């Protein structure tokens, strides 16, 4: 448990003066502190020594906007990156914090507001709201065309509005709740507003601790009258709701919300934070850089078991939207602890279940599910309709046969990948063949003009029994874990991303795990595993130069 911080004593120790407690605020002290260029009037709170102290700028310095000073006057001097400090020397921590805050304030005194407007959305979101729960949830894209909006509101007390311009954008509302919007007594009925994207208009945000007047708002709204003449009547309504967007760097747009209500003869303006629920924003928030090649890829996943299900989920989370899922098997309880599907899908088809799961978890996907086996599904027509086919069946005899069909029917730019786990956590493999290039799954079974019965890259020596059985005849399974599949799936996803953004070639990749389980089960490792395969890149370059009878022709 944190001990009380003797903040007043610490402030005096680091050189602050005129230290006074702020009335009715717990452990909040005002003081003066000298930086390299200015004397600053500040205040500080420090209730948790596991965090840095909060430092506030006094009102007398808030006559203009400054970068990294929030509306409620807190100085944002550290974003949490590279944050290492000890609570055993609080005086040093406080001094360093004050020095960082003073540097932010000194640097912000130049009058350059580029950084301030870059963080304007956060500044506006920090303005005290009409009620703490009030929030505008934005389900539509922030484009540069103004238009009317509609909102779904859960209840009269929630103050959470789900804004959309088209019904299909608002994925956060169930069909049952949508029906309530037709009921006149429902809080969701008839709620509308306007989206107004600022372009060249000057934005003068309220100063710290202040609010916009209705006239301040009208200056922005009236600039849209030529495009939306109906705004002239809308600004006279007792309740008005707006979402504004504004340009940011690199073509992005920020947003803030406004709620206006008539109070007697005057109008009150409330600043409402905006939460983004549109797919493009959420993907960028996940640090995804979605290349055009990724968005356009049509992917077929043949085998929706442990590895296949994890690759499918990773591909969707990487920006791939168009997947065909192929698997004839039923999802059983035996699969539960090494598959992405939860227990509720047990008893249904793997492909259909995976489609339903991904559609319920992510946005705007184009998924198909087939219960055909891979051989039946892989017609020339289906092959030609997909840019990438992933084979995660664990059956190399079948996959090498399908590889022949693929090469006969594919065109330049198409790819086929095979993925598999080694047993007992030894590792996993990925082979990606590009049409027109040498290097494929069959190359691993071909050496010196001879066909092999065992892949050259296997991590165990041939003719060993590695399958497990808990129930007797018919109950055998390959011993690998969910973490093994997860690592192979990640390797596969990274390889696909690389293949789409690099020069066209074929790829072979592997990961090598721990050998403890193999030793415990008396499984002999191959020289490839024991050596770590340091010559892999040279070996694969040779394969891609010579090929095999399948990919060479």
From TrEMBL:
<dbReference type="Pfam" id="PF00899">
    <property type="entry name" value="ThiF"/>
</dbReference>
<dbReference type="GO" id="GO:0008641">
    <property type="term" value="F:ubiquitin-like modifier activating enzyme activity"/>
</dbReference>
<dbReference type="InterPro" id="IPR045886">
    <property type="entry name" value="ThiF/MoeB/HesA"/>
</dbReference>
<dbReference type="InterPro" id="IPR000594">
    <property type="entry name" value="ThiF_NAD_FAD-bd"/>
</dbReference>
<dbReference type="InterPro" id="IPR035985">
    <property type="entry name" value="Ubiquitin-activating_enz"/>
</dbReference>
<dbReference type="GO" id="GO:0004792">
    <property type="term" value="F:thiosulfate-cyanide sulfurtransferase activity"/>
</dbReference>
<dbReference type="GO" id="GO:0005737">
    <property type="term" value="C:cytoplasm"/>
</dbReference>
<dbReference type="GO" id="GO:0016779">
    <property type="term" value="F:nucleotidyltransferase activity"/>
</dbReference>
<feature type="domain" description="THIF-type NAD/FAD binding fold">
    <location>
        <begin position="292"/>
        <end position="446"/>
    </location>
</feature>
<protein>
    <recommendedName>
        <fullName>THIF-type NAD/FAD binding fold domain-containing protein</fullName>
    </recommendedName>
</protein>
